[in-house]
Sequence to fold (311 residues):
Amino acid sequence: MVDNRTWADKIRALKEQKNAVILAHYYTRPEVQQVADFVGDSLALSQQAADTDADIIQFAGVHFMAETAKVLSPDKKVLIPDPEAGCSLADSCDAEAFRRFLEAHPDHIVVTYVNTSVEVKAMTDICCTSSNAVKVIRSLPADRKIIFAPDRNLGDYIKRVTGRNDIVLWDGACHVHENFSLEKLLALKKEHPGAKVLAHPECKKPVLMAADFVGSTAAIIDFVGTDGGREYLIATESGILFELREKYPDVNFIPVPPIDSTCGCNDCQYMKLVTLEKICRALETETPEVVIDEEIRRRAERSIRNMLALK
Ligand code: 13P
Ligand code: SF4
Fold:
């Protein structure tokens, strides 16, 4: 049995030999984050993918993230360690059904969260991530009608924050973020009265209403740095705990438990499919590679570039 350190050594050697860069999301396993060249949230990862001068991008994350990297860097080889690493939120927005939805709502500006397939992005005017969703909506003319897809919880949150009640929402969600238990959260708040609740906007409204801060993974990490508290209740995927504990070793982070689970915290099983062994094999064989039809890629690129242009 090969241990993590041996896999990591092999990965570092292959990276150097092949001029490859590893981009990892905060939800991946700790040992994956440790071997990455860059760890970030969806927005920062797409910015890195657009800027890198590596020949190979090894994307340690889920499929839509690797696709986004390929859309932005078509001349680079983009590898995904496990193509089964999907996303329930992206899957909740089927491209054909979305096309019919758009036909039923003509004359709307189409905003989609990056957690979508490349086909959905190709039908989008401007993408957003959880970091910049509010900013993207505020950048749009006040007299234009808007469609927001696919996350109904993030969509509902941005409607509340921006006051734009005319946004039409697609009815999709992330199974991980919808599974946080409000009852268990309220019980934990009683046990830890000094702890602030930090939640990702993909959580359901009652959880967001109980939160002191709502933000993307990167925003949650930054919030702790500026807030300077000693204890926090965290309502997002469990992978973020690694970076939080590395960065703030003296702070107590308590995961908000899910409604039903055996592990006491919320894991995205897709993110956890990415292992050191799979990264190593992908770098060795330079497969599986993300391949996208050029016409679809070009149309999807416009929607992502429109987002990245919003500084
Ligand atoms: P971030 O935008 O915070 O990276 O979130 C991505 C994601 O998949 C949330 O479930
Ligand atoms: Fe998709 Fe949810 Fe996993 Fe994020 S946590 S990658 S939205 S399934």
